[in-house]
User: Fold Metal ABC transporter permease from Planosporangium thailandense.
Amino acid sequence: MTTSLALADPIGVLTHPFAQHALLAGTAVAAAAGLVGYLLVLRAQVFTADALSHVAFTGALAALAIGLDARLGLFALTVLVALGMGALGHRARPDDVIIGGVFAWILGLGTFFLTVYTTTRSAGNGAAGVTVLFGSIFGLDAARADVTAVIAAAVCAAVLVIARPLLFASLDQAVAAARGVPVRLLGYAFLTLAAVTTAEATQVTGALLILGLLAAPGGAAARLTARPLRAMGLSAGIAVASVWIGLTASYAVPALPPSFAILTVATLGYLGAIIATRTRRRKVKFRLRHS
Assistant:
């Protein structure tokens, strides 16, 4: 019955409370991921987001292994590791060597906590690890959806507040520092926002697929416009559209996991941006040749 309803009227299914909660949380998280994701692309720190996604999973497993709420470990460890990487990097901007080292260590630590969790507590809460890995956006209740939306909105507001100096520092770090811009402080602030966004996005896409929601919209926006502020808005718009279309597709085809649907749409958006950019370049070359 649910399947036939979804296929007949996928938009109408959004009137159900669980769908409203998913839409609220998903929209807010997508907006934050779009804003932060573009800055990750601009600052060449996409690998940082990949590392933080694994930190999120390890943090959740650590909390579960000692009997705490997974979200506590998820947020705490993700933010702490992000700040730690910033401290090791030049002006709070870790390079690939630092990130790779942290990545490997976190994966090893995650393996340890996974072993502890599965041997001591999996019988009582076996679905928790899978939820962190793949997300549970349709399982959010009203209270959790509201909290998620508030945190994501706060991240969006913080990004917009520091956007101009952060963009300046991202494009030319040396000149920004010479002009008195607090480059290191901005670096720490951005890493914190990236960590919180990564932790929040586990509920939407899961730890394994977070990178797609952060990188694909940001990468598409960077290809479509060279204006940073416009690109930030475009990236957020693409991320939100990916969530809306992905959720609708998941309603229409209940066997389709929402996280997979969302990431598929985001990836298609990035591929579309590549095609659009190449088409535009060919048109410019054609006009130049025939002018």
Remarks:
- The radius of gyration is 20 Å.
